[in-house]
Design a protein that fits this description.
Largest sheet: 4 strands, antiparallel
Radius of gyration: 34 Å
Strand content: 5-15%
Number of domains: 2
Strand order of the largest sheet: 2-1-3-4
Helix content: 40-55%
Order of helices and strands: HHEEHEEEEHHEEH
Number of helices: 6
Length: about 220
């Protein structure tokens, strides 16, 4: 009976006053820790989702193994970095080319539409990749590209205009290049004037055959 009285004393009012708050603090800590854990898991999941979405938009150009990979248009091995071009479809499929002109021809033949932000060329001087939307281009017969299209690219507008001035050409953007006609298997107005030994600028051709009446003959 003494032992039972001692135990009941621990469970009486005086014991509850001391022990109750301890259990309450532990319960609150457990609840708070559980909430923090759930918040942390949710935050980590959100970060992974956002990271995945961001990587899809900024995947960058395909990796080209020079001296090994094949141009999908002409079937030749891609060897010169400064002339290589590429694009990625929304499906994730990649297309690589040894010449920008081949990229233009392939999109027409295959009926594929290139998002300028998912298409890339190399800067002719620095070799850095630049997307088609921000690149500047100079069609010129003074440079021989792998498949002879003779269009060089720049990541910087000022350098593009300076180069164009040096070779007697014109610096243009992707919308112009994309719409250039093909003379035989070569893309660009400048090939029409090849027999005269000088470049014909895009603007002069756009103003029609009156200025170059002999071009059609």
């Amino acid at each position: 009976m003494v032992a039972l009285h001692h135990c009941s004393g621990l469970g009486g009012d005086s014991g509850d006053d001391r022990i109750g708050p301890v259990f309450e603090r532990k319960r609150r800590m457990t609840t708070r820790d559980g909430s923090l854990t759930r918040v942390a898991i949710a935050a980590a999941t959100l970060a992974l989702v956002l990271g995945a979405c961001g990587s899809a938009d900024t995947a960058g150009p395909p990796e080209i193994n020079y001296g090994r990979d094949i141009c999908v248009q002409c079937g030749m091995i891609i060897t010169e970095e400064k002339f290589a071009a590429a694009y990625t479809l929304d499906s994730g499929e990649e297309r690589v080319f040894d010449d920008l002109g081949d990229l233009v021809l392939y999109t027409r033949d295959a009926g594929e539409v290139v998002n300028p932000l998912n298409g890339w060329v190399h800067d002719f001087e620095t070799l850095e990749w630049v997307d088609l939307d921000h690149a500047w281009f100079v069609p010129t017969l003074t440079v021989t590209t792998p498949m002879g299209h003779s269009i060089v690219s720049f990541s910087d507008e000022a350098r593009a205009h300076a180069f164009a001035s040096d070779v007697g050409g014109e610096a243009v953007q992707w919308a112009v290049i994309e719409a250039l006609p093909a003379t035989g298997n070569l893309v660009g107005h400048h090939h029409l004037d090849a027999n005269e030994g000088r470049d014909m600028t895009t603007s002069s051709l756009d103003h029609g055959s009156n200025e170059h009446g002999g071009a059609e003959g």
